[in-house]
Specification:
This protein has 368 residues and is α/β, with parallel strands linked by helices. The protein contains seven helices and 17 strands.
């Protein structure tokens, strides 16, 4: 899932006609930047309750405690790659574009990190069935160009035997992030290896492929997304995959509000997936800013883990940061719980020349 300016100095003696040089403004006192340490919320005082002050919006930051005990062990610089397969392949990339195979279709989409030259020639790229243009088309699906024949809005895709719908959306994406497959395989093995009932919480769950993987492996799943369209799409995917009988709760709500409520309820989950955008809005206008809200969210997730948890997986897209930013956040957040934090990048391995295209940063904590 972002201008330059400068002050123009005025020459001395250039004030209003007849005026002398302006006196230099008083030197401003230098501010000493200091880290922000949230303080615990004050205790309720029933004798002096202010019922007139409106609740601030957005709500105040969560008090983040310093967890005690040893920090989790760590592995850094991991590269988790997705190789070309029959379901999906990064065929080639370059000149700010990527050529991908999604099921039966070749698709061209923008890719800012592909600053090299394509490995394949123009003839291969001209075989594309759909090209994201960013323009609004009054006929058919907007922002997509179909060089051969007009294509329908949706088409069948699959991941490891789980069918679902691809869709030509107006915001470039098609309903799945294939690089997440390494996380899905990891989650699948955790669920099957637990040999007990497992509860999974999928936050910012999008179209639900991860939820379907977890449900097929035997988990009870709670899927949360702020988009009603995404929830409808995810339900369609569940039916298409033949998993309608599996226990999945589909919840359209702001993720932060949902997790805070689960904390108050005392709910618990064994596995939590976090796939937040850099910026987003909830169904009631709630604002999500990753660097502002992620520390609170990760701490909330810790608070709703079961006594015998399996893991928390965090993926961060479209941010200017090192993976160490989220790595150290995760190690601090899970201090005292043992386990290990593994962090690095998710990449797609190109079929044409074997180049690696980085898509996102990740950090995941595992109890063992």
């Amino acid at each position: 899932m972002k201008s330059s300016g400068g002050k123009i100095r005025k020459a001395k003696g250039t004030g209003p006609k007849g005026a002398g040089p302006k006196a230099a403004p008083p030197r401003q006192q230098q501010k000493n930047p200091r880290p922000h340490f949230p303080t615990p919320p004050p205790r309720a005082n029933n004798e002096a309750r202010d019922t007139t002050a409106p609740r601030p919006h957005p709500p105040p930051r969560r008090f983040l405690p310093r967890h005690t005990g040893p920090r989790p062990t760590e592995k850094t610089g991991l590269i988790l790659e997705t190789l070309p397969s029959d379901d999906y392949a990064l065929l080639d990339s370059g000149n700010g574009l990527k050529l991908e195979q999604y099921g039966p279709y070749r698709i061209i989409r923008p890719e800012g990190q592909a600053i090299w030259l394509p490995a394949w020639n123009k003839a291969e790229w001209d075989k594309a069935d759909a090209i994201f243009t960013g323009n609004t088309d009054e006929e058919g699906v907007g922002r997509w160009h179909f060089p051969k024949v007009p294509l329908g809005e949706t088409w069948p895709l699959a991941y490891e035997g789980i069918p679902f719908f691809g869709r030509f959306t107006s915001f470039r994406h098609v309903g799945v992030f294939p690089e997440q497959g390494t996380h899905w395989s990891h989650m699948d093995s955790l669920i099957r290896g637990a040999k007990r009932p497992v509860k999974v919480l999928n936050l910012f769950g999008y179209t639900g492929v991860a939820s379907l993987v977890a449900a097929r492996a035997g988990a009870e799943v709670t899927h949360v997304d702020a988009s009603k369209k995404a929830i409808v799409w995810a339900r369609e995917n569940q039916e298409m995959a033949g998993l309608s009988g599996k226990p999945i709760r589909w919840i359209c709500e702001d993720a932060m509000k949902f997790v805070a409520r689960e904390e108050r309820r005392g709910s618990g989950y064994d596995i939590i997936l976090l796939d937040p955008p850099a910026y987003g809005r909830g169904p009631n206008g709630e604002v999500w800013q990753l660097f502002d809200n992620l520390p609170d969210m990760v701490d909330l997730c810790r608070s709703i883990l079961t006594p015998n948890p399996l893991g928390v997986v965090l993926t961060a897209y479209s941010i200017r940061a090192s993976f160490f930013a989220i790595h150290e956040l995760m190690r601090d957040a899970f201090t005292g719980l043992g386990g290990e934090v593994q962090s690095g990048e998710l990449i797609l391995r190109e079929r044409s020349s074997g180049r690696a295209l980085s898509t996102s940063l990740f950090s995941r904590w595992g109890a063992k």
